Amino acid sequence: MVKEHCTWTGFYSRLADKLLTFKNDRRSLMNKLLSLYEGVDMKLPKLDSSSTPADIDPYTVFGLFNKGISDTNRRKIVSAFAEAFGIEADQPKDFQGVPTLNNLNATFYAFKGDGRRGEHDIDNLWRTFEAEIKLAAEDSELNRAEFVEAYDATIGQFGLGWKLTMGLYWVRPYAFVSLDSRNRWYLGDMKTAGPVVASAFPKEKGSPIPSGAEYLAICDVVRSQLGSKDCPYQDFPALSNAAFIESERVNKERKAAAKAADKEAEESALGDAGVETVHYWLYAPGEGASMWEEFYRRGIMGMGWCDLGDLSGYATKEDMQLKLQEVCGGATTQKNSAHAVWQFVHDIKPGDVVFAKRGRTEILGRGVVVGDYEYDEGESRYPNIRKVKWSHKGSWRTGEMFAMKTLTDMTDYPDFLAKIDPFFEDAAVGEEGVVALEYPLYGAEDFLAEVYMDETAYEALTNVLSSKKNVILQGAPGVGKTFVAKRLAYSMMGAKDVDRVMIVQFHQSYSYEDFIEGFRPSAAGFELTKGAFYSFCKKAAEDEDNDYFFVIDEINRGNLSKIFGELFMLIENDKRGPKNKLQLLYSRELFYVPSNVYLIGMMNTADRSLAMLDYALRRRFAFVDLRPGFGSDGFAEYRDGLSSPKFNELVSCVVRLNAAIADDDSLGEGFCIGHSYFCGLRVEDVTDAALSAIVEFELVPLLREYWFDEPSKVREWADALRRAIK
Question: Which residues contact 692 (CB under 8 A, 6 or more apart)?
C-alpha cells in the first residue's frame, strides 16, 4: 500500500520496471522519449553534444522530471510517461522526499566527444540499474555481490559521484537511501538521526564517495534504526522528506538573517540589492600564464603583490593604492593594480565563472569560484588565493584581443561571452562541482510591500500579463515604471532570478540589427551577429520549464516597425512556440518566440516629442496605466516612518499640483508627478537641503517644461512648493 506521504514511490518503481525492458533496445527508448515530448508540445532537454542523443541511461530518463522544474511541469511530464509506457500505477499527488538534480548537470554521463566519457559508461549505468532492481526484489549474497561489482565499476565515472545514489533511490526508494547533500547534512547530525546513523553516515563535506559495499552498509544501518526513538522515520522516503523540510527551514532562517543584515544596504539603480548575480572574470595566472599548470593542479587562482600582505586588512581601495605607491615607487598611480587586488578580495564571489588566459588572444581554461579570499603566509610569490573548481583545460582562441590587465570583469560584455561560451557548452562538472545560486524568494507579498500598488491592481496586472504575454506600463515621470517592471517579473517567477530578466532601452538609433540579428564589422570584414532579443529567446527555449521576462525601457522611443521586423506576428500570445516559425531576414533561420517569454514595455506618457505607437504593435500589447502612489497604504507607511512635517507638507502640495495638472486640458493625468521623486529617503536624509534640491532641481524644471507657454503657472506652483518646506 502506498503511503500518504510518498505517493510517487509506486509510480517510480513501475516506470523502472518498464525502462528495464529497453536495456538492449535504447534506440527505441530514445524515439519514445522524442515522441513523448512532442506530444506535450515541449522540447526535449539537451542530453548530449548532439540535439538527439544516440544513447541514454535509465537514471537520466528519471532525471527528466526530477530536476529544478515546477511541480506543474513535473506532473505534465509524468502523465506523458504514464501514457507512453502504459503504467497503471496511480500518478504522484506529491513529490515529497524526492531529491532533484541541478538543471545544469542533469545527465548521469559526460557529453560525447569531450574526452571524459568512457566507452562503457552508459552500459555500466544500465548494469547497475538492473542489479539494484534484482537486489531490491531478493536480498541475497549473490545479488549483493552483483550490485557491488556493478556499482564499483560505475561510481568513478566522470561527474557522477553522489548523484548515482539519488538515481538508486528514485528507482527503489524503500531499498536504497539517497546520499544527496541534504540527506548527508541531516543524517550526519546526531541530534536529527541518532548516534548510530550519524556515525555511519558520510558527513556533509569532505567525505569520500563510498564503495558499493560501504554504500550497502550505510543502507543497512539506517534501515536498522528506522522507527527507533533516535530515528523515528518509517522508511527512507519519510527520512528524505524530513531532511528536505528541515533544510528548507534552516535556509529560510539564514536568508532572513542575511536580509536583516543587508536591510540598510543601498540598492542599485534598478533596486536589485541582495541578488547574487554571476560575474564572469578574465584572469591571467601569473606573468605569461607561468602559474597555470600549478594553479590548475591545486584548484586555485592566485594573485601576487605579496608586499601588500593580507589584502583583507585594507579598509578602502585608496589605502591599497597608497601602499602600492609606497612599495613600488615611481610616478605611476598604481590605480589599475589597486583596482585588481580590491576586486580579487571583495568583488569576486563563490559561483562566479573564471576564464584563465595567456597573453591577449588565448583562453587556457574555465572554472567556478568555490571559496572566499584566503591569505597564505607561507607562500612567497602568490599568497593571495581563492579556491576554484577548474572544469576545463586546453587552448582556445577567439580572434579578439583581450585587455592586458591581470583581472577583468567581463560580465557586461555579452558579445565576448557569446563567443567563448561555445568552447564550454558542457561546463557542468558534477553535482558537487556546480555552485548553484539560490536567488532570494520573491512573491506577491514582497511586491506589494515594495511597490505602491494595491492588491487588486496587482492581480489585474499579473492576470493580463499571463494571458496576453505582452504589456506596456505607461505613466508619467516618477511613477516607478522600471522599478515595477522588474519586481513584477520577480513576483511572477517567485524569485529574484536576475538571469531570467533582461532589460534594454530603445532609442532613435536602435535597430533590427541590435534587436534580432545583423551584419557587423569584424577583422575579416563583416560577420553576422545576434541581437539581444534573439539571444534571450534562445536562452529561454533551452529552459522552457521557467518563465523569462524581456523588459524594454522607453519602448516608444524606437522605430518599432523597424526594430521588430517580422516578429510582429511571432510576439502574439497565440503565435508562440516551435509550431509558429518565420524566416529571419539575414540568416534565413526559422525562428520562433518561446511561450515562456514575456515582454514588458515601459512608456513615458509625458514626453510630447514622441509619436504614437504603431497600431499593429499596439494590438499585440495590453496597456496598463501606472499612477502616482501617494494615496497608497505603502506610501503612507513610508511617509509616517520619516516623521517629517515638511516632507508631509511637500507631498500634500504635490498631490494638489497633480490635481491641477490632471484638470489642465493641455496636460492631463499622463503628466502627473510620480511618487518616486520622494522615495528611498531615510530619516536622516530628510533635511531642508535635500527637500529643497528635489524642488529646485527636479520638480520646478519639470513644471517649466509642462507650462513652457504659461510662466505664471510655473511661478505659482514653484512658490507653493517652496513654501511647503519653509
Answer: 722, 725
C-alpha to C-alpha distance for 464 and 587, rounded to whole angstroms: 34
> Which of residues 373, 389, 423 is at a domain's end?
423
CA dihedral defined by 142, 143, 145, 147, rounded to 10 degrees? 170
pLDDT (tens digit per residue) in 155-179 = 999 878 889 999 999 999 999 999 9
DSSP 8-class letter at 441: B
| 460 to 177, 296, 473, 625, 664: CA distances (angstroms) | 46, 53, 13, 12, 29
**In this structure, are 337 and 257 located in the same domain?**
no
Whether 526 is in a domain gets the answer yes
Taking only the tens place, the pLDDT of each residue in 229-272 is 989 999 999 999 998 888 888 777 765 654 454 444 334 434 45
DSSP for 453-489, please give it: --HHHHHHHHHHHHHHSEEEEEE-TTS-HHHHHHHHH
What's the CA gap between 43 and 692, in Å, rounded?
57
Please name which of 366, 322, 371 lies closest in space to residue 348, comparing C-alpha atoms: 371
Distance between CA atoms of 118 and 158, rounded to whole angstroms? 9
Give the side-chain half-sphere CA count within 13 A for 352. Answer: 24
Give SS3 for 524.
coil
3-state secondary structure 480-516: CHHHHHHHHHHHHHCECCHHHEEEEECCCCCCHHHHC
Q: Residue 56's pLDDT is what?
A: 95
In whole angstroms, what is the distance from residue 554 CA to residue 563 CA?
Answer: 13
Q: Which three cell numbers stand for residue 317?
A: 581601495
Pair 405, 488 in one domain: no
Label residue 597 exposed, middle or buried (CB < 10 Å: 0-12, 13-18, 19+).
Answer: buried
Determine how β-strand 597-604 pairs with β-strand 470-475: parallel
Last residue of a domain, one of 600, 626, 652: 626
User: CA separation (Å) from 9 to 92, 172, 220, 497?
Assistant: 8, 8, 20, 32
Taking a C-beta distance cutoff of 8 angstroms, is the pair 410, 282 a contact? yes
The DSSP symbol for 546 reads S
Query: What confidence score (pLDDT) does residue 49 get?
Result: 74
Tell me the C-alpha distance between 116 and 159, whole Å. Answer: 9
- Which regions in the chain score pLDDT beneath 50? 1-3, 258-259, 261-271, 273-274, 426-436, 608-611
Q: Using CA atoms, how far apart are residues 564 and 504, in angstroms rounded to an integer?
A: 14
How many CA atoms are closer than 13 Å to the CA of 420, on its beta-carbon side?
Answer: 30
Rounded-to-integer distance, Cα 74 and Cα 416, Å? 36
What distance in Å separates the CA atoms of residue 204 and residue 302, rounded to the nearest whole number? 27
User: 626 pairs with which residues across the strands?
Assistant: 475
CA distance 687 to 676: 17
CA–centroid distance for 350 within its chain: 14
The 3-state secondary structure of 291-355 reads: CHHHHHHHCEEEECCHHHCCHHHCCCHHHHHHHHHHHHCCCCCCHHHHHHHHHHHHHCCCCCEEE
The number of distinct structural domains making up the chain is 4
Under 8 Å between Cβ of 621 and 471: yes
Distance CA 120, CA 243 (A): 34
Which runs of E-coded beta strand occur in 615-721? 622-626
Half-sphere exposure (Cβ direction) of 207: Cα atoms closer than 13 Å:
20
Phi/psi of residue 362, nearest 5 degrees: -120, 130
Residues 262 and 293 in one domain: no
3-state secondary structure of 236: helix
Q: What is the domain range of residue 449?
A: 444-626
pLDDT given at position 283: 93
Query: What does the DSSP assignment read for 193-216?
Result: H-HHHHHHSPPSSSPPPP-HHHHH
Q: Are residues 404 and 453 in the same domain?
A: no
